[in-house]
Structure formats: structure tokens, C-alpha cells
């Protein structure tokens, strides 16, 4: 399900992949994975251990030999005897993993030299020295008297921090000559200096034919067992001080290295593909997981990628094709971790049933502040779901979602628990009809597994305020509940329902009495005509001065009275006072206009028109001198009833004003439909025209629009002279606000008008 930024919450961005690829490259180039790489290779080797060829025989100087024959090093006469015995037994070649570089007893040396010459098949070890003191001078080579009739073989190897050998050279440079390694010679392959291969440690070292040197010396019968074989002699006893770490086997005599190297070369041509192929494969698996949808598919892609990386080399390495896999694995692991983390984070923002973003996601919408919230509540949802399987619930939700998407499938739908859905609407759009239509759609039962399910739905709308999205959503839901309670399809949020209920109730019970006791009175706020700067009327505003609490804000008790259907008495009271006042001001034939606020509730009061005409007649005020102010939403709410009443009032001659214009659902259609004489632009816009461009545009275009429809424009809340001047420039008709006059007593208003008349007369 796409979110605001068009990104699937369950998928990763390309950027994550790019950075992972770069990190993987560095990982591979630096060789960070070496320890893990070695451990993995050892583990793989256990899956394909194989037997030695049997062509290479080890004659070991082991503990047993040293016990039987004597302490190490043995006199070279013993080595001479060994050469003779082995040659006589038909050995093909004899390799000594010992460097005979120093002199010993002359007689022994001579005997050894002679045996080498007699045999003609001896290879002696030479060793290039590495490290800071390296150089041809330090290279270990056999004495010339031995070397003269022998082959030379290099026993240099490359070992790592663990003293483990992971690379065996084909040849080394010793005293300026290229000397093929024991492994290369025994394995029957050649290569250049600097070229090396990864030995195959999957060889089972126990399968190497082995004889103890002591047994060979004592002439044990090995007839036939050595004929045609290559023999390598080396120290395996601890006394020899020649031990290496054999991966997968442990510490073993260095001689094994040469045998393992040789056996590796015998079983195939070792190829080292390095880390790039596995790295690319890991990247491909990561890429796939980015393209695929759904947790399951992504997991399958990554897990099978990892499995191939872990096990694939088992097959290739059986054919001596070596692969390094840690950079590839690294990529897969990073992507898996990132995905898991993302899912974990996203889980808090997604409804698990539908995968739609949930209400937390709605609350986090950054642009939500500028939009209206519509909340839908399936009233019987929990009761229905209790009878459904999880799959059934998913089916039901799918049908609900597809109905809610009718007419506008592009917007994001949010789903909460317990059958709550919500979305944003732009404030400028009229969506009342749309909600009506949606409500109608829900009259048809849903079908789950062939069973019809009746759905009951109600909608609530919060058009917007400075409050947090969380509060606004709660308000929209309260409005939906109220709509359901009142049997309406939908309802706007009433800001007052959130106020302190207990005070409101006691206040309400007191309001009627307060009117009777005279605590309620009417203030008048003058309105001037901008062209002439003359007072042309006033707005009547209810005031309640509570004996204990002092003045109570009009908005507070008016909204409370409205919400509880107690507004009629207040309205009638204010109307009467205002009509009496206007009639008095106009007694000498003036055209003073009195404005009275009319709550929406009054529009359904059948007796209102009658009472109004009676009042006007009784006090002698012409209907055209009375303006009734209606808030935008008041006229729209409910059915056509309100509009009928407005039309009747207009026909009767009373003027109609649209109050607080701009805060609700104002459209051209709406303006045309309501037969208002006057549009009062809400204070919030008027206050902004000096420094807010969009407020200025709104006021200017409203003036243009209203004039084109033949309506007058009143600017409310004018607090500064600067704003007044701007309004004149913009062609506004009438202004009201503290800059002109605060709401005042009738007495004060009378004095102000009298003063103005005197000035005009003068
Ligand atoms: P409203 O109809 O928008 O009335 C204008 C409100 O703005 C009044 O607040 C007024 O005192 C205030 N006002 C006027 N000029 C300025 C200004 O320059 N700056 C500022 N900051 N405020 C200004 P009030 O009297 O507290 O009334 C609040 C609301 O209560 C009214 O808003 C109206 O909706 C409602 N109301 C007041 N009297 C009645 C009534 O008799 N019947 C009904 N149904 N509603 C009433
Ligand atoms: Ca008003
Ligand atoms: Ca107003």
C-alpha cells in the first residue's frame, strides 16, 4: 500500500542498496571477512572430505621413531640409510622436508651425500626467507655436497595470523633461482613465482599412507607398498618444532602441507574466483528483495540467496573452484537487517489486517494540518468480526475499502481498529454529497463467503483547526458517533462538545433563569460603510454577566445552548432587544441596519418566522433593516429544510449574511445557492491581509466573487487602521472591529450615532 511519499512501507529504498553495495565493496577489498571466510571454508570442507590418492607416501619422524632410534636431529648416516632403503624399495622420488644447510659430522655428511648420488631420485628442501631480514643471503639451501646430485624443491609457504596456510606457492625464488615448490613437484604441475593456490583442506589426512621412519630403518616389510610411489620424509614429532595450523584438522607437522598441496593439484586445477562473483550474486539477491512485494517473497529471496552462497561453493570446491563468499553474505545480511528494522518500524504505522496505513500514520501526516479529516465508523464492526475467520475479516475489509474508495481511489485511506477508517479531504472541496453517496453505498450488504452482512456506517468531519491531528481525529470520530446517535448520515465536529460537560450542564440550567433575572444583556458593535466612513448598522452580541463568575464568553454559552437545543429562548431575547434598539434608532426615518446571529438550530424551528414577523410588526421595524447572520455550515447541514427557511426569510424581506466566511466549506456553488445579501469574511483572514499573501488573495478574491454575485462584503475583526486602509483599497464595502468600535451598550451606541449625526450636520 503506497504511503504519502509513494514508497511502500515494507520496501527499502534504492539508496539503502547503493550504500550496502559500497560497504560490501570496501568489505571485500579490505578483506575484513577473512576469519569468517576461513571458518566457512573449513565448515564446507567437512561436507566433502575425500581420500588421498595414495600416490604420495609419508615417512614420518614421529615420537615413536625418536624413541626407538634416538633424539632429534638424527645423524645423517641414518638419513643415508633411509635413502638407501627407500630407493631399494622402488620409491619413485624421495623428498626431504628438511634443510640440510649446515655441516655435521664429516663421516655422516659423506655417507648422506653418497646415498643421494646412489639413489639419483632425491629432492632436497630449499626455503626462501621472508620478513625484514629477507634476502638471498638468508635463504636456506642444502650444502653443495648434497645438492650436487639432488633436485631442489621449495618448502616456502604463505601463512596468516593464525599460523594457518591458505595459500601455497607454485614456486619460489631461492638464491636467485626459481625453485618449484614441493607441492607443485609432487602434484605434477608447474607455475610461476608469485602464483599460488588455495589448498584443498577437505583431504582426510588419515588416508595418507604413512610409515614411521624407525620402521623403515629397521627394515619392516613394505615390499610393493612403495614401488612407484613418491615418498616425502618429514618431522611430525613435537621435537621437530615444525608445526602449522591445518584448518579443520589442527596443529600438524609442516610436511602435511606439502602433501595436501600436492593432493590438491592432483585432484584438479585449483581456480580461485575470489570474492567478486559471490558479491555480485549477493547484490542480485538484495536487488530482488527490493523489487519483490510482500514480506514472504522478500524473505525467500534473501534466505535462498544466503543458502546458495553458503552451500554453492561446496559443489564448486569439490572441483577445486574456490570462492570467497563473505562480501556477498555481508550484503545479504545488511539488507535483511535493514528490512527487518524497517518492518519493525513500519509495523507501528500499518494496519495488520489490510496493510493500509493506520491512524498513527494519519496522525503523523505532515500536510494533514491543512486538510479536513473525514472519519468513518462501521457501527457494528466488532460484532460482525467476532463471527468471522481472519480470512473472512480480510474479505470484509476489502469490500469496505473498495466502497470507501468509490469516487476517489487516489487518496490514502487509513484504517484503525474496530471498524474505523479515515482520510483527508482538501478543505476547498465540497464533500458533503460525496459522503452522502458513500453512505448510500453501504445500504447494500457486504458478502463474506456467500453470507450477506448488513453494515451500518456513520461519518464525522473535522474541517480543521489549529489543534493537533490527534485531537482533530478524535473530534471527527466523536462527530461520527453523534451522527449515528442522531440518525444522521454524517456530522461536523462541534468544538463545544469537548468542553467541560458538567459546568456546561449547570450553566445551561442557569441560562434560562439568567435571562429572566436580567443577567443577560445585548451589546452592539458598530459597522461602518467604508466609502463614507459612516456607521450604517451594528451587530447584536449576547452578553451574560454571571453574579459569581463575572462575564461569560458568548461563544461559550451560545455553543453550549446550541448543542443542547436551548438556543431558542436566547435568540428570541436578543432579537427582541435588537429590534427594539434598531426601531428606536430609526425612529426618525433612518436606515440603520441591525444584525443578529442566528443559530443553525433555529432554521428547523417551524415557529420562528412567525415569531419574527410578529416582533418586527410589534416594534415597527421594517424587515429590510434586520440582518440575520448565519455561519456557513449552519445553512448546509441537515437536509434542504434550512435552505427553505432562508429563502422564506429572504422573501419576507429580512437580509441574510453568511458569517465567518472562509472557515468552512465555501465554494462558488454554495455562495450561489444561499440567497445571502452579505458575506462576512472571518476575522482570521482579515487579520492576515497586511502580511500574509494567501490571506490577501483570499479576501481580494472573495470581494470580487461576492460583487459579481451582487452581494455586499463585510470584513470582521478589523483591529488596525492599516487593515482598514487596505480594505478600502481592495474595494470592501463594510467593516466591523475594534478599530471602529468594541461591542458596547445601547446607550453608548446611541451617543456615538448622535455624535456622528451632529458632525455630519455641521
Ligand atoms: P461572531 O458572530 O463572529 O461575532 C463577532 C465576535 O468577534 C464577537 O465576539 C466580537 O466581540 C468579536 N470581535 C469583533 N471585533 C473584533 C476585533 O476587532 N477583534 C477581535 N479579536 N474580536 C472582535 P463575541 O461577542 O464573544 O461572540 C462570539 C460569538 O458568539 C459570535 O461570533 C457569535 O457566533 C456568537 N454569538 C454572540 N451573540 C450571539 C447571539 O445572540 N446568538 C447567537 N446565535 N450567537 C451569538
Ligand atoms: Ca456574527
Ligand atoms: Ca463572525
Give the gist of this structure.
Helices cover 44% and strands 19% of the residues.
Strands, helices and their partners?
Blueprint: H1 14-30, H2 34-45, E1 56-61, H3 63-69, H4 76-88, E2 93-96, H5 106-119, E3 122-126, H6 144-147, E4 151-154, E5 158-159, E6 165-169, E7 171-174, E8 177-180, H7 182-187, E9 196-197, E10 210-212, H8 213-217, E11 230-235, E12 243-246, E13 250-253, H9 255-267, E14 271-272, H10 276-291, H11 295-318, E15 321-322, H12 326-347, H13 359-363, E16 371-378, H14 381-385, H15 390-404, E17 414-415, E18 420-426, H16 432-441, E19 446-448, E20 451-453, E21 457-462, H17 469-486, E22 490-492, H18 501-517, E23 520-529, E24 534-546, E25 550-552, H19 554-563, H20 567-585, E26 593-597, H21 608-619, E27 626-631, H22 632-636, H23 641-652, E28 655-661, H24 668-673, E29 678-681, H25 683-686, H26 693-708, E30 712-715, H27 721-730, E31 734-736, H28 746-761
Helix pairs in contact: 1-10, 1-12, 4-5, 10-11, 10-12, 11-12, 20-21
Bound molecules: ligand C2E and calcium ion (2 copies).
Residues 539, 597, 629, 659 line the site of one calcium ion (CA).
Amino acid at each position: 500500500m503506497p504511503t504519502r511519499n509513494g514508497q511502500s512501507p515494507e520496501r527499502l529504498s534504492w539508496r539503502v542498496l547503493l550504500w550496502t553495495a559500497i560497504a560490501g565493496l570496501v568489505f571485500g577489498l579490505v578483506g575484513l571477512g577473512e576469519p569468517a571466510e576461513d571458518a566457512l571454508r573449513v565448515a564446507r570442507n567437512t561436507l566433502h572430505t575425500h581420500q588421498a590418492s595414495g600416490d604420495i607416501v609419508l615417512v614420518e619422524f614421529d615420537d615413536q621413531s625418536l624413541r626407538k632410534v634416538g633424539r632429534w636431529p638424527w645423524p645423517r648416516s641414518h638419513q643415508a640409510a633411509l635413502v638407501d632403503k627407500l630407493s631399494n624399495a622402488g620409491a619413485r622420488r624421495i623428498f626431504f622436508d628438511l634443510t640440510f644447510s649446515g655441516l655435521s659430522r664429516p663421516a655422516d655428511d659423506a655417507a648422506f651425500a653418497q646415498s643421494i648420488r646412489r639413489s639419483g631420485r632425491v629432492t632436497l628442501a630449499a626455503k626462501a626467507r621472508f620478513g625484514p631480514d629477507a634476502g638471498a643471503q638468508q635463504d636456506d639451501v642444502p650444502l653443495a655436497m648434497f645438492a650436487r646430485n639432488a633436485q631442489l624443491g621449495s618448502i616456502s609457504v604463505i601463512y596468516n595470523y593464525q599460523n594457518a596456510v591458505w595459500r601455497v606457492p607454485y614456486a619460489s625464488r631461492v638464491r636467485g633461482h626459481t625453485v618449484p615448490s614441493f607441492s607443485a613437484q609432487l602434484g605434477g604441475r608447474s607455475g610461476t613465482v608469485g602464483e599460488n593456490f588455495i589448498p584443498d583442506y577437505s583431504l582426510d589426512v588419515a588416508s595418507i599412507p604413512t610409515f614411521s621412519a624407525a620402521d623403515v630403518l629397521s627394515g619392516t616389510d613394505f615390499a610393493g607398498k612403495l614401488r612407484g610411489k613418491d615418498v616425502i620424509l618429514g618431522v611430525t614429532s613435537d621435537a621437530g618444532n615444525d608445526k602449522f595450523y591445518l584448518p579443520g584438522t589442527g596443529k600438524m607437522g609442516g610436511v602435511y602441507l606439502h602433501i595436501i598441496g600436492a593432493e590438491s593439484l592432483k585432484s584438479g586445477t585449483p581456480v580461485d574466483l575470489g570474492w567478486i562473483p559471490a558479491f555480485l550474486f549477493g547484490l542480485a539477491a538484495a536487488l530482488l528483495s527490493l523489487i519483490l512485494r510482500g514480506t514472504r517473497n522478500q524473505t525467500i529471496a534473501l534466505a535462498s540467496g544466503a543458502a546458495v552462497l553458503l552451500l554453492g561453493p561446496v559443489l564448486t570446491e569439490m572441483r577445486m573452484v574456490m570462492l570467497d563468499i563473505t562480501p556477498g553474505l555481508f550484503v545479504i545480511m545488511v539488507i535483511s537487517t535493514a528490512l527487518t528494522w524497517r518492518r519493525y518500524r513500519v509495523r507501528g504505522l500499518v494496519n495488520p489486517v489490510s496493510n493500509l496505513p493506520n491512524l498513527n500514520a494519519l496522525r503523523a501526516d505532515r500536510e494533514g494540518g491543512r486538510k479536513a479529516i473525514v472519519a468513518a465508523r462501521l457501527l457494528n464492526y466488532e460484532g460482525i468480526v467476532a463471527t468471522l475467520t481472519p480470512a473472512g475479516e480480510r474479505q470484509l475489509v476489502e469490500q469496505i475499502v473498495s466502497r470507501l474508495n468509490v469516487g476517489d481511489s487516489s487518496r490514502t485511506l487509513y484504517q484503525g481498529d474496530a471498524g474505523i477508517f479515515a482520510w483527508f479531504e482538501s478543505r476547498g472541496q465540497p464533500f458533503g454529497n460525496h459522503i452522502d453517496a458513500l453512505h448510500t453505498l453501504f445500504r447494500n450488504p457486504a458478502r463474506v463467503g456467500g453470507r450477506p452482512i448488513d453494515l451500518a456506517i456513520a461519518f464525522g468531519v473535522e474541517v480543521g483547526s489549529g489543534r493537533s491531528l490527534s485531537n482533530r481525529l478524535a473530534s471527527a470520530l466523536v462527530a461520527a458517533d453523534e451522527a449515528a446517535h442522531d440518525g444522521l448520515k454524517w456530522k461536523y465536529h462541534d468544538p463545544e462538545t469537548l468542553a467541560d460537560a458538567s459546568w456546561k450542564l449547570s450553566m445551561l440550567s442557569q441560562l434560562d433563569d439568567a435571562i429572566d433575572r436580567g443577567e443577560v444583556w445585548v451589546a452592539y458593535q458598530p459597522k461602518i460603510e467604508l466609502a463614507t466612513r459612516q456607521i450604517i448598522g451594528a451587530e447584536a452580541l449576547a452578553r451574560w454577566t454571571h453574579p459569581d463568575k463575572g462575564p461569560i464568553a458568548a461563544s461559550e454559552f451560545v455553543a453550549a445552548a446550541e448543542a443542547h437545543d436551548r438556543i431558542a429562548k436566547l435568540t428570541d431575547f436578543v432579537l427582541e432587544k435588537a429590534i427594539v434598539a434598531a426601531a428606536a434608532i430609526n425612529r426618525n426615518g433612518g436606515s440603520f441596519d441591525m444584525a443578529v446571529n442566528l443559530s443553525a438550530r433555529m432554521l428547523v424551528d417551524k415557529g420562528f418566522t412567525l415569531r419574527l414577523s410578529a416582533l418586527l410588526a410589534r416594534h415597527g421595524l421594517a424587515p429590510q433593516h434586520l440582518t440575520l447572520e448565519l455561519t456557513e455550515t449552519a445553512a448546509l447541514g441537515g437536509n434542504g429544510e434550512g435552505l427553505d427557511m432562508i429563502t422564506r426569510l429572504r422573501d419576507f424581506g429580512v437580509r441574510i449574511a453568511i458569517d465567518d466566511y472562509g472557515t468552512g466549506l465555501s465554494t462558488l456553488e454554495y455562495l450561489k445557492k444561499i440567497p445571502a445579501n452579505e458575506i462576512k469574511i472571518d476575522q482570521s483572514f482579515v487579520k492576515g491581509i497586511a502580511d500574509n499573501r494567501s490571506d490577501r488573495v483570499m479576501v481580494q478574491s472573495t470581494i470580487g466573487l461576492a460583487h459579481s454575485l451582487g452581494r455586499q462584503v463585510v470584513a470582521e475583526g478589523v483591529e488596525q487602521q492599516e487593515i482598514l486602509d487596505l480594505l478600502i483599497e481592495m474595494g470592501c464595502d463594510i467593516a466591523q472591529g475594534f478599530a471602529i468600535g468594541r461591542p458596547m451598550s445601547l446607550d453608548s451606541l446611541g451617543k456615538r450615532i448622535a455624535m456622528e449625526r451632529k458632525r455630519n450636520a455641521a
